[in-house]
């Protein structure tokens, strides 16, 4: 899923990937994400697809407040962190601000990545928002009983489509997590013919539309929903 390392020197921006940390600015917050390529490979570096989808969530004005959101294959956690920050909803009473209308964000990856993922999430969220973000193990196709079916408003994934042997399990997971109203947002760089194969498999079960293309990073964002309807956010 998110733990298979690429070979060093393979032209994937090696210098940035090997940096111990990278810094971004989203949702009026500075986010400093730790990286650890040598220990966890692709699960512990920030990929362009996560940056592009994070920017799309912010600039596109997608309202995540009071929504249930899950990220698949979260890796460093950047996208889930941004979703939590953007989903902040504040109800001000006489004495204090209460964050009970904020998004509920579940940030998932395989067991080996969870400790690293959790550390990034905790380090980059204000204390009042930390209870709104839960880091949880999810191996596609295996841990689905731990997640209520069809309970999420948004399913997010950044650069999770690259291992063909995981495609069937990823589709099974998406079907389990989604209701008719759930919006899937997948951000990816189309590198190989197998990536097109996954999109075809996805279209066999969901309505799929390309909604954004970042030409500077060669990253596509696809929206998918069950059924044949096309809805605006």
UniProtKB/TrEMBL annotation:
Provide a GO biological process annotation.
methylation
Q: What's an example of a GO molecular-function annotation for this chain?
A: methyltransferase activity
Q: Give the transmembrane ranges.
A: 40-57, 77-99
Q: Name one GO cellular component term.
A: protein-containing complex
Which InterPro entries does the record match to this protein?
Answer: Methyltransf_16 (IPR019410), SAM-dependent_MTases_sf (IPR029063)
Under catalytic activity, the entry for this protein gives: L-lysyl-[protein] + 3 S-adenosyl-L-methionine = N(6),N(6),N(6)-trimethyl-L-lysyl-[protein] + 3 S-adenosyl-L-homocysteine + 3 H(+)
Q: Per the record's keyword annotation, is Transcription regulation included, yes or no? A: no
Look up the domain of life of the source.
Answer: Eukaryota
Where found? Cytoplasm
UniProt KW keywords? Cytoplasm, Membrane, Methyltransferase, S-adenosyl-L-methionine, Transferase, Transmembrane, Transmembrane helix
- The answer to whether UniProt assigns keyword S-adenosyl-L-methionine to this entry is yes
As for family, the record states:
Belongs to the methyltransferase superfamily. METTL21 family.
**Name of the protein described by the UniProt record:** Protein N-lysine methyltransferase METTL21A
